[in-house]
Amino acid sequence: MDDLAIRALVARLSRPHRSGGHVIERSSILAEGTGSADVLAWIADHDGEPEAAAPPRPGQQGLHGSHFHDRGPVQAPVPRRYVLPPGTLD
Question: What is the distance, to the nearest Å, from the Cα of residue 61 to the centroid of all Cα atoms in its chain?
C-alpha cells in the first residue's frame, strides 16, 4: 500500500484521542485485510505508540484465578490500540 492509501485508511478507522491525537483499534486494522502489516509499520514510522494496557489488579482474576498462576512465563499482551500524536493525519 502507498502512503496516501494508508493515511486515508487510518483517518477513516481512527477517532480522536484525549491527548489531541488519534487512536486506532488494532482489530479494525487487521479486519481490513492483507495490508495490515503495512499499516502497522506506517503507524510505527509516524511515532504511533501502543496504548498502555491497565495492569491486572492482584486477586482480580475471577473464580478460577489460582489456575492462572501455574502456567509458566506469561507473554506480553498484544496492544489493542495505537495512539498517533497530534498532527499526524493533518
Answer: 23
- Which tens digits make up the pLDDT trace of 6-61? 999 999 999 999 999 999 999 999 999 889 999 999 999 999 999 876 565 665 56
The owner of cell 486506532 is 24
- With CA atoms as reference, report the closest residue to 86 among 25, 38, 17, 26: 17
In the structure grid, which three cell numbers stand for residue 34, read together?
Answer: 492483507
- Is this structure's pTM higher than 0.85? no
Nearest to 78 by CA among 24, 37, 23, 27: 27
Are the C-beta atoms of 75 and 37 separated by less than 8 Å?
no
